[in-house]
Amino acid sequence: MFRGKMGDQEIIILFSSAISKSFDEEKDIVYKQILSVGERILSFQDGTSFTVADPSRLIVAEVKKHDLVTVYVQHIIEKPFMYDVAKEEDQAG
């Protein structure tokens, strides 16, 4: 779990139970990637899902707004499991 400030609001970042069991070693990197979205997170409506991509993974998260802004990391999709439609179309033809 990460707890900190973004602008003047407190923010919490949590991992889903499936991810927290299998992704311990790189959590700090994922926290930084989520935080790279910046204060735009604060403008998202309650229940908004968003993604953060880098060359090796796609992070899917959801914002929940109650007393605190909480970001739940729902999925981390590693590169071998990402399907690139444009690349497939280029190879086909």
Describe the protein's topology.
Blueprint: E1 2-6, E2 9-15, H1 17-22, H2 27-35, H3 40-43, E3 49-54, E4 57-65, E5 69-78, H4 85-92
Parallel strand pairs: 2-5
Antiparallel strand pairs: 1-2, 3-4, 4-5
- The CATH class, by name, is Alpha Beta
The pLDDT mean sits at: 88
- Cα shape: globular
Based on the structure given, which CATH architecture is correct? Answer: 2-Layer Sandwich
Number of strands: 5
CATH structural fold name: YaeB-like fold
Sheet of most strands:
5 strands, mixed
Which terms would index this structure?
YaeB-like fold, five-stranded mixed beta sheet, 40% strand, globular
How would you describe what is shown here?
With 93 residues, the chain is α+β, with helices and mostly antiparallel strands. The protein has one domain (2-92): YaeB-like fold, CATH 3.30.2310. 29% of the residues lie in helices and 40% in strands. It has a 5-stranded mixed sheet with strand order 1-2-5-4-3. The longest helix has 9 residues, at 27-35. The radius of gyration is 15 Å and the shape is globular. The model has no long low-confidence stretch (mean pLDDT 88).
Provide a short characterization of the protein structure.
By secondary structure, the protein is an alpha+beta fold.
